[in-house]
Amino acid sequence: MHQRSTPPTSPTEVTAAPTAGRRRFTRKALLAASALGVVTALLTPVQAGAATAPAEPATAKAATPLAANGQLRVCGLQLCNASGQAIALNGMSTHGTQWYAQCVTDGSLNALAQDWRADVLRVSTYVQEGGYETDPAGFTARAQKFIDAAHARGMYAVIDWHMLTPGDPNANLDRAKTFFTAMAKKYKDHPGVLYEIANEPSGVSWSAIKSYSEQIIPVIRAQDPDAVVLVGTRAWSSFGVSEGSNESEVVNNPVQASNIMYTFHFYAASHREAYLATLDRASDRLPVFVTEFGTQDYAGEGANDFAMSQRYLDLMKRKKISWTNWNYSDDHRSGAVFKTGTCNGTNWTGTGVLKEAGVWIRERIRQ
Predict the structure, then answer these.
(1) Alpha helices, DSSP H only, in 224-305?
(2) Average pLDDT, the chain
């Protein structure tokens, strides 16, 4: 639903930490530590490539979202924590990491975790448009670096396979199998990941998306049997509304897998009553995660419609639907939260560096 961007110059990504001599903790150990309120002390050294400037000292108590909630799972229609309590994650999505890696730094992620108080970072690995297909190993490593940095700050990470064009996820089936095998192998012992297997399918039937999902989910489950998987829906993850359908096709023919949720995307200035009503109906029948939305038009541009956006947020809050906003960058479009040029500097906190949409969404996350 959002347009592409041109690549910026001089990326300065989040710093990677050396990995030699580091212990790995099993998910069971992490969950046990979470119950004791000490998971943050374990998280910083767990993952290779974690940021060198964690958001809080290793001795901190269980104050972060990850430490407090542990391994997530789907219970009924809800996302639940390790104790079985329904929760909703709120946070931000990166822009494409081939273009805006310089916006994902130690400083920006410290701001997201501490100043914004976000629960989750969605790491968007584009498949085409100069992304994963041009350097699979490099973009896998980049995604892992950003995921590790989110974990080091006590945030969850959504691993977003950002297929957009072509709209049929089956066109990238083999690439997706390779990518998610690598990701699931790395994070099989970590409670802090959710796998989003197809960003915005379009121009393709629900049955084709379902077939793709039922091939990719076993690839993930073979390595990581516990993590939540997020399944894209038809017509740019609108449950088919943007192509004249609705959620009934999913309700009547769900993906044959457990511990999954279905994704819904909206851009409030373009997606009005029919979309809002679809999200309301669908979430009465299916577990839903809004992995992308904006307060502007479907291209992430133009004037913000905060009134319509608030109606969506009120619905999601009432129904405990998790969400991530598009996007945590300084792209020139109104949907990027930072003022253009911010990612070339070192100041990330407060509202002075933010566009109008950034000020608005930061306040909603902080609430």
Answers:
(1) 234-237, 248-251, 273-285
(2) 87
